[in-house]
Amino acid sequence: MISTYQLPYFIAISVDFLSGFELEDFKEYFLGKGVEFIDFDTTIAKQKQFSHLGKEWTELGIFYDNIQISGLIILYNNSYNLLLNPIKQQVIYKEKNKELLRSLKNINK
């Protein structure tokens, strides 16, 4: 239904102190994180060959597997936080939702 009618879809979460979750946990889980890798072959030739690649790759978060989720609205420490799906094809970024998106972005202030 959400995909058929192209509706913005948000998940609201209220985090309390006892849950043990931090705001950063949601960012990491839904947006992704950098994962460092160990290269045991550190010869100069190999370092020059692969220096442009860096020392980590990105592990994608839940948003990338669930494009229908426009974002999260998280109540954390008595303030609201907005975490938007970064995929630009997501319905929340369409012109018809411009005003809604602008209003939602004010939730962090």
Summarize this entry quickly.
With 109 residues, the protein is α+β, with helices and mostly antiparallel strands.
List the helices and strands and how they pair.
Layout: H1 2-5, E1 10-15, H2 23-31, E2 32-36, H3 44-50, E3 56-60, E4 71-76, E5 79-84, H4 98-105
Parallel strand pairs: 1-4
Antiparallel strand pairs: 2-3, 4-5
Distance between the termini: 32 Å
**How many separate domains?**
1
Q: Which structural class should the secondary elements be placed in?
A: alpha+beta
Can you give the mean pLDDT? 83
The total beta strand count reads 5
C-alpha-based Rg, rounded: 18 Å
Features:
5 strands; single chain; two-stranded antiparallel sheet; three-stranded mixed sheet; alpha+beta; 26% helix
What does this structure look like?
With 109 residues, the protein is an alpha+beta fold. The chain has one domain (2-33, 62-108). The chain is 26% helix and 26% strand. The protein contains 4 helices and 5 strands, in the order αβαβαβββα. It has helices at residues 2-5, 23-31, 44-50, 98-105; strands at 10-15, 32-36, 56-60, 71-76, 79-84. A 3-stranded mixed sheet has the order 1-4-5, with no helix packed on it. The protein has a two-stranded antiparallel sheet with strand order 2-3. The chain is globular and about 35 Å long. The mean pLDDT is 83.
